[in-house]
Amino acid sequence: MTEDTLSEQSRARRLMRIGESPRNVREALGKVLWIVIWLVFLSSPVHDLAAGHHTAGGTTAGALGLAAFVGIYLTLVFRNMGKAFTGPVVAVLVIVLGVLAVLLCLTLGSAWLGLFVYLSVACGTTFPLRIAYWTIPLTTAVMLLVGLHGGEREALNLVLLVLLIGFAMTGVRQLVRTTVELRKARATVAQLAANEERLRLARDLHDLLGHSLSLITLKSELAGRMLPDHPDKAAQQVTDIENVSRQALVDVREAVTGYRRPRLSGELAGAQVALTAADVTADLPTEPDLAGVAEENESALAWALREAITNVVRHSGARRCTVELIRRQTLDGPHLELSVEDDGSGGSGNGPGNGLSGLTERLEKVGGALEAGRTRRGFRLVARVPLAGAEGAAGRPGGATGDTVGSGA
């Protein structure tokens, strides 16, 4: 991982803390430092107290009032740390803040009008938007009225600042809220992606191990029956079991890493071996024409073939199985159709199993479809995937509906 990537991830983690309470002392100090910077508008009241323009009692009362004002303001700013304040408590604190601002300005002079900046910020950050939108202009109007008591010029200079900073804080609140919602949405998307990946892995492992373990079980039974009288044939079956086991291990590793893309030709060869071992007469394509078939579509058909052959070997009790690949021109365009039909009794159960459900999902993802059901002769599974282009419709005079790509004789 590069330094740039680490830097981006670190920056993303910092941004994700917007709108959240501090998790440790370091984050709390950072937030305090950021807030203290914005206490610059208190410089005028502090300078007024230090200049000695007031009596000792007035200076003491002003210092106490200023300390109370700053304490309430910081309390509102950090209201979400620990147990959050309720709406009525917040409203009372803002009202007290406003009363202190008015009293300090009327008694100590226009140098204290900057307190209304913090009152406007408090209204914009603590009240619901519908209340903040009228309390901010009200704060500005109160400041103008107080300014008539000897500080009209200073009040006029602060009108735009008090008004804009209050509404700016409402925008910051909405930005923080949006950031929090996006963070939650990102977590939800990550969870959904993890769930989808687990489903994909479950489908892959079911298809991979179901086929391989069925073949291993079948060959183990054959080896057991051959062992007393035909040790050489039994040894061959054991060798086949070893090869299937090794291939299953490779397939599982590839499926887990996400690189498993079965090929139809390979699955046809595996189907021939599995059907022959199960003593089922196999009629399969020898060299299927896969021109115009996307890799994802071929992979979906390969999974369908594997599942169908596994079901034939394990459940059907069939004596014959026919596999066909047919190009068909439909209203939706050219499609490649895989048909697997056997003369067995079919599986048990009243509904589709996990394998057929997984195949349906795979085929739907590539725009295909799956059909499976009983026929007069046995059981038939049909999987269709779209072809790239419309070459399937060309060269078929008279509107032929399909060409058999290949079937074994």
3D architecture notes:
The structure is a single chain. The protein is α+β, with helices and mostly antiparallel strands and 409 residues long. 63% of the residues lie in helices and 11% in strands. The protein has 12 helices and 6 strands. It has helices spanning 3-15, 25-37, 43-50, 56-77, 87-108, 115-126, 129-147, 152-226, 231-257, 264-277, 295-316, 354-365, and strands at 281-283, 320-330, 333-342, 369-374, 379-386, 402-406. Strands 1, 2, 3, 4, 5 and 6 form a 6-stranded mixed β-sheet that branches. Helix 6 packs antiparallel against helix 7 (129-147) and helix 8 packs across helix 12. Residues 1-19, 390-401 and 404-409 have low confidence and may be disordered.
Annotate the secondary structure layout.
Layout: H1 3-15, H2 25-37, H3 43-50, H4 56-77, H5 87-108, H6 115-126, H7 129-147, H8 152-226, H9 231-257, H10 264-277, E1 281-283, H11 295-316, E2 320-330, E3 333-342, H12 354-365, E4 369-374, E5 379-386, E6 402-406
Number of distinct helices = 12
Please give the oligomerization state of what you see.
Answer: single chain
Could you report the average pLDDT, rounded to the nearest whole number? 77
Q: Shape, please? A: rod-shaped
Distance between the termini: 55 Å
Number of E strands? 6
Order of helices and strands: HHHHHHHHHHEHEEHEEE
Structural key phrases:
single chain; alpha+beta; disordered N terminus; disordered C terminus
Summarize the structure.
It contains 12 helices and 6 strands. The chain has 409 residues and is an alpha+beta fold.
